[in-house]
Design brief:
This protein is of the alpha+beta class. The chain is built from seven helices and four strands, in the order ααβββαβαααα. It holds the Pfam family Peptidase_M78.
Length: 164
């Protein structure tokens, strides 16, 4: 399994190679464009409603499909998660990656989540904003970075930053 530091290195390398700056909030659309990845929001069938998103090949082009009813912060995290699968796991046999709520959480899923956190909530930007705002709440930072409160809470814990 890849370490958090190796995943951070890959995120930094990806952004640098594609001339994408780290911004608050991160502009995922620019990265998708640079990578030549399509993006579509769809309503998954009722029996598929536990699927937040997937990356697949359509007409010889990689496309990320996101469940349209999801809240915007969730869509952003799922998109970043799917990019993580592409960058970290592209040589693996499985051609489609699905994020299924409540599904099996294995090493690949954890790596893709770490990738998404590093992409959407870069350590240096989280720390800078945290200290500038003088102990902001997790909600404050989640709103600033356009991520969910649970995602920001996990990131703050990972960075050993106290929050309300």
């Amino acid at each position: 399994m890849l370490s958090r530091f190796e995943i951070k290195r890959r995120v930094d390398e990806l952004l640098e190679n594609n001339n994408i700056e780290k911004t608050i909030p991160m502009n995922i659309t620019n990265l998708l464009t640079a990578l030549g990845i399509g993006y579509h929001e769809i309503n998954f069938r009722e029996e598929d409603m536990d699927i937040s998103g997937c990356i697949c090949l359509r007409n010889n082009k990689l496309v990320i499909l996101i469940n349209q009813p999801e809240p915007e912060p969730r869509k952003r995290f799922t998109t970043a998660h799917e990019i993580g699968h592409l960058i970290l796991h592209r040589n693996e046999a499985q051609s489609n990656f699905f994020e299924i709520r409540g599904g099996p959480y294995n090493g690949r899923e954890q790596e893709a989540d770490t990738f998404a956190a590093e992409l959407l909530m870069p350590e240096e930007l989280v720390r800078e904003r945290y200290f500038r705002l003088k102990n902001p709440s997790a909600d404050d930072l989640a709103n600033i970075f356009n991520v969910s409160r649970p995602a920001m809470e996990l990131r703050l814990i990972e960075l050993s930053l106290k929050y309300e």
